[in-house]
Amino acid sequence: MGKVTVITSGKGGTGKSTIAAGLGAALVRRGNRVLLIDCDAGMRGIDLMLGVSGELVFDIADIINGNCPPASAIYPCRTVPELYILPAPQNVRDELSPSVMRQLTKVLARYYDHILIDCPAGIGVGFEAAVAPASRAILVANAEPLSLRGCDKVRQKLRKCSVSNIRLIINKFNEKKFRKTDAFPDLDAVIDESGARLIGIVPEDNDASAASQKGKPIEGRMKAAQAFDRIAARFDGKYVPLKIE
């Protein structure tokens, strides 16, 4: 059975979906078969990031409504073999319930090494359904007060949903901007503010941002890709020293 991880954040704009796509590709490079489930109903974006939006016919709501078998709504990422995408519904009214999401993911986990669930930002509509099947969580934040403000609420909500294995990724990190802003004395203070244990830092990377906008994978010599590779190794249980990536 594959490991199920929900990727969440305290607010929008942290780059949560980019983390899901980048980590998914990095796990594939380690020999895993990975499914990305987009749970952001009405606001789906992973299909665009990985260049499969033009192929979409069915989504996760079609599976639940009996319009298609699960395999028809799961799309392979052509540029990253063994990475697959299950898109979110286009309409918020088609959002799944926690119990249905749990049942569906239990079936799908038989066929993948990892399932990564891209959760809607915050703890509003859709959060509990996205979290329901997960055994662990990645909390995505930027190294700024506004981004970190909601982390505590998300962490508490995750624990109420019986997800206690929570790790932090600091995304879009720029050390010069961090020092200039002077909102925190150091990264330890950022980690303390989040309340979660750090698993990695993804640097601000214009090349990676451009790739995502064009529907191309984050890979190769991109700084963000190298950071994702190190995070994926830790995610798979390998010891890799933490540092500013």
The mean pLDDT is 91
Class from helix and strand fractions:
alpha/beta
- Which percent bin holds the helix content? 25-40%
Give the topology string: H per helix, E per strand. Answer: EHEHHEEHEHEHHEHHEHH
Tell me the distance between the termini. Answer: 31 Å
The largest sheet has its strands arranged as: 3-4-2-5-1-6-7-8
- Describe the global form: globular
List its traits:
alpha/beta; 18% strand; 11 helices; 8-stranded mixed beta sheet; 245 residues
Written overview of the protein:
This protein has 245 residues and is an alpha/beta fold. Helices cover 37% and strands 18% of the residues. The chain has helices at residues 16-29, 46-49, 60-64, 98-108, 127-131, 145-149, 151-160, 175-181, 187-194, 206-213, 223-235, and strands spanning 3-9, 34-38, 75-76, 83-86, 114-118, 136-141, 165-173, 197-203. An eight-stranded mixed sheet has the order 3-4-2-5-1-6-7-8, with helices on both faces. Helix 1 (16-29) crosses helix 11 (223-235). It is globular, with a radius of gyration of 17 Å. The two termini are 31 Å apart. The model has no long low-confidence stretch (mean pLDDT 91).
Short description:
The chain is of the alpha/beta class and about 240 residues long.
SSE topology sketch:
Blueprint: E1 3-9, H1 16-29, E2 34-38, H2 46-49, H3 60-64, E3 75-76, E4 83-86, H4 98-108, E5 114-118, H5 127-131, E6 136-141, H6 145-149, H7 151-160, E7 165-173, H8 175-181, H9 187-194, E8 197-203, H10 206-213, H11 223-235
Parallel strand pairs: 1-5, 1-6, 2-4, 2-5, 6-7, 7-8
Antiparallel strand pairs: 3-4
